[in-house]
Structure formats: C-alpha cells, structure tokens
C-alpha cells in the first residue's frame, strides 16, 4: 500500500514538473535583444591595452611619489631633528622621522651589493672545488665498477 502511494506521488510530481517546464518555455520567445550594440574585437583589444597602460602609468607615478617623499633633500643634513627643552617633566616630545638622502641610500646599496657579490664568489668557488672532488670520486668509483666486467 505504501509502495503504491509512493509510486503515485513520484508519477504526479513528474507530470507537474513537465507541465511547468512546458509553460515556462512557451512564455519565452527567444533570447532578449541587446539594447547596446557589441563592440568589435579590435576595439575591445585596444581598449584593454589602453586601460592596462594607464593603470601601469598611474601605479609608477604613485610609487615614484612615495619614494620621493621618503628621501631628504640633497642639501639638507640627514638628521635634522630639532629638540626643544620643556620645563614640564611629564611632557612628551615627538621627533621627526629619520630620513636619508639619495647619496646615502646609494652608498648603502652599493656596499650591500658588493658584499653580496663577494659572498656569491666565495660560494661559487667552494661549489666548484666540491664539484671537482665529486667528479674525481665518481671517476674513481666508475673505473672500479667497470674494471669488474673487463
């Protein structure tokens, strides 16, 4: 009895779903028409390229401005911090942030790059020496193994 009821319910649901799908398909008469015309492939390609170029230019400008704002002028001393004495012992003073000039920054970068090059050369020499040792060991072991078959 329960199986019969379940079978009828499933059959009824299938009929209802078919009717609703048929009613929905009869009300739509095709895809909606576009109100704006499509742009061509070439125009879209150039539009994307121009937007990319404009974004890149704006980003480089922002980065350049941020870098320029963080360097002190060349003529000014690197640490131009003015201290004022206060009679109030609980008063706090704020110091201007330490800014370096471009020349100092170049000097620091040059020194760091020279140190990295020196370290690279030392590591490369050590690796080449180890490579020669490994090559000699390989040749020795290979000759021992090949001599077994001769």
Describe this structure in words.
It is a single chain. This protein is an all-alpha fold and 150 residues long. 67% of the residues lie in helices and 0% in strands. The chain has helices spanning 2-27, 41-69, 102-147. The model has no long low-confidence stretch (mean pLDDT 82).
* Largest sheet properties: none
Distance between the termini: 89 Å
Strand content: under 5%
| Discrete helix count | 3
Helix content: 55-70%
Order of helices and strands: HHH
* Structural class determined from secondary elements: mainly alpha
Low-confidence stretches: none
Shape: extended
Number of strands: 0
Average pLDDT score: 82
Query: Measured on Cα atoms, how large is the radius of gyration?
Result: 39 Å
Task: Draw up the topology in text.
Blueprint: H1 2-27, H2 41-69, H3 102-147
Please give a quick description of this structure.
This protein has 150 residues and is mainly alpha-helical. Helix content is 67%, strand content 0%.
